[in-house]
Design brief:
single chain, alpha/beta, Rossmann fold, seven-stranded mixed sheet
Length: 306
């Protein structure tokens, strides 16, 4: 058999034999092919099926563009959440969801935006490796997702976190201690380190043991527990917000959760006066874009597999 093979090789034209040998040698030294899973873009699914005040086609269009420019694939979820839909995502973004009864009525009572079945589905999905970015701004939005947040150990306060001087923005700074160090989100060794970010009137929450704080409110903040949006009365219940959070990350089961109590910091928009910039383009929001991208990279690094 060996002699027959040698005879067959001897009959090959010299040029063909040379090409065959070169191909064989190149295959020996070639690196193993990159798998599709290694090259594909991380997939971000932005909820738009729960009367969300912020969606990829609306107020979060600047966020969607930023993520696409940063290497993420962004899609909208326009139907109820299902196991099949969540299997298409690495990160699920829920931003300012509301129950239908509160869409045009920003006052108490505030009904849950998600059914018990959907909340259980999202919770199980995270426990099995999914990543959730949950954003609930000021009243009434925290009340609409309080039950979902509680599944991960977060206690959302359905109100307004307001600084004593009622400034147009809230600054969180590494040097002042209000922005906490996070190796993968604010770290000095990152390609885009973050030292200061701005937020624009949100609420506050308490995080579970083991969560990593990102944005911490100072002693000059109060939490106004209103029953109607933007209505602040002398008899409105309020308490100190010192030490409460507006941003934190947490590992939950095999997955990850990032919770924020302010939504405008993730986008770019104009204030009602049409002149003032809110979000990415605000004068003091110099690191907001880098911060946001780093949050998504933390949520997908490593990309959690289902």
């Amino acid at each position: 058999m060996k002699r027959q093979t040698e005879s067959a090789v001897a009959r090959l034209p010299a040029r063909l034999l040379t090409l065959t040998l070169l191909l064989f040698l190149s295959l020996l030294g070639a690196p193993s092919p990159t798998t599709a899973a290694e090259t594909r873009q991380p997939r971000v699914l932005i909820d738009a099926a729960h009367h969300n005040f912020h969606t990829a086609d609306g107020r979060y269009a600047p966020l969607a563009r930023l993520l696409q420019e940063s290497g993420f694939a962004v899609h909208s979820a326009t139907t109820a959440l299902t196991p099949e839909l969540l299997r298409t995502a690495d990160v699920l973004v829920i931003a300012n969801a509301l129950h239908a009864s509160n869409v045009d009525r920003w006052e108490s009572p505030v009904a849950p935006a998600f059914s018990e079945a959907e909340s259980a589905l999202v919770t199980a999905w995270v426990e099995n490796g999914g990543s959730l970015l949950l954003i609930a701004d000021h009243f009434p939005f925290p009340g609409a997702v309080a039950d979902l947040a509680a599944n991960f150990g977060f206690r959302l306060f359905n109100g307004f976190a307001i600084r004593a001087d009622v400034a147009s923005e809230d600054l969180f700074d590494i040097d002042l201690g209000s922005l906490k160090p996070h190796k993968q989100i604010t770290g000095a060794d990152l390609k885009a380190p973050v030292t200061r970010i701005a937020a624009f009137t949100g609420s506050a929450f308490e995080a579970p043991t083991g969560a990593q704080p990102l944005m911490v409110l100072g002693k000059d903040y109060e939490l106004w527990l209103t029953s109607r949006a933007w209505e602040f009365r002398t008899d409105t219940p309020r308490r100190s917000a010192s030490g409460l959070l507006q941003g934190a990350t947490h590992s939950h089961g095999k997955g990850r959760v990032a919770v924020f109590a302010e939504a405008a910091m993730f986008t770019s928009q104009s204030a009602p006066d049409g002149q003032t910039s809110i979000g990415f383009d605000a004068p003091n929001a110099r690191d907001n874009r880098a911060f946001v991208v780093n949050v998504f990279r933390w949520l997908t690094n490593p990309v959690n597999r289902r």
